[in-house]
Amino acid sequence: MIKKIIVSLGLLFSFSALAQEGTSSPYSYYGIGDIKFKGTAETRSMGGLTIFPDSIHLNLQNPAHLASLKLTAFAIGGTYANTKSKTETQEEKARRTALDYLAVGVPIGKLGLGFGLIPYSSVGYKIQSVSTDEVPIYSRYSGVGGVNKVFFGMGYQLTKKINIGADIQYNFGTVETTNLRYQNEIQYGTREGNESTLQGFNVDFGATYQTKIKNKLNFFSSLTYSPESKIELNNLRYIELIQFLSTGGISTIQSEDVTVADTSIKLPSKFSFGSGLGVVKKWLVGAEVTLINNSVMSNRFNDINGATFENSVRYSLGGYYIPNFNSYANYFKKITYRAGIRYENTGLVIQNKSITDFGANVGFGLPLGGTFSKININFEMGKRGTKYYNLVEENYFNISVGLSLSDRWFVKRKYD
């Protein structure tokens, strides 16, 4: 049954992942877009904490955890995002639903393998502004697209206490942005379009350590490192003379291609380290720090101004609690209760102001019948940016749902 579910869901969501509009943020105009992937639903519920070596859940941020799998795991997750964007004078709301990840993990003795698809970043915004000239100039800005990752990873149990792992990722995608300008008294307007096709590779390395301190109390530790890599961009630009139709549509009167140089964007190196204490199948509390060399980042075109990048840091604090993992009489005692907070400097600097992001999370792991499979639900509330200095403050409420199906595969039948 689980294998049939995997096939049907995989076919459904793998296609939609390539064309979804997963953000409504104007900040997604810069770099490779708004970085959407923040882990699976269960790790997001703990503020992004990734230190726990789970035997039934996939950890997509540290490949060393693949070696901890005891059952074949299929994971799929998505997020419903509700965002209120504010400036000092205006306020708008937007809603988006998008796929977060689709992955499979397979244990083979001390080795664990994982592969899947992750919509990594997203571009999606629609903005209109009006100048204060005597004859106002109306400007409309819009963008769609993003970067997807196909990955393959391996984890190996080096000793009973140490796991190591690595994965390779192929990045690909398309970003399209337009800038339309017109005046009411003039028959025609102009529209500039830019399109970038992106592709490149990067790798991640990881390690985990766990040891028993006393009785059932364990110490957990995790580290990951991603070296700097590069995404190549094939860029196109065109300028159009347009006319608005009575139906509300737009007719192109004349179009001309503009020669622009192909560019490349460096993906920053990243290092994270975290540790925590806990009792397996009972509780865990931990913290994690991630350092990102975002100062090497750049924009898609050389003539994009108004934003720079700086090195950034992310702090995560969280954990989980299970009242009684083996309870048969009370379902609520088997639920995994998770909570966490996250604070980060995103690395984006606009108007000489660093764009920061803070989020608080609470989540639940709901067991499915008598199996090891779970539905993981995460509720996240947070704020990014500021409404001052001609910037945008984004207040968001996200609901993430992840389906984690775990079962034994490739078992030889004794009876037909």
From TrEMBL:
Write out the entry's keywords from A to Z: Signal
> What's this protein's name?
Uncharacterized protein
Renumbered to this chain, the signal peptide range is 1-19
Q: Does the keyword Signal apply?
A: yes
Which superkingdom heads the taxonomic lineage of this protein's source? Bacteria
The answer to whether UniProt assigns keyword Signal to this entry is yes
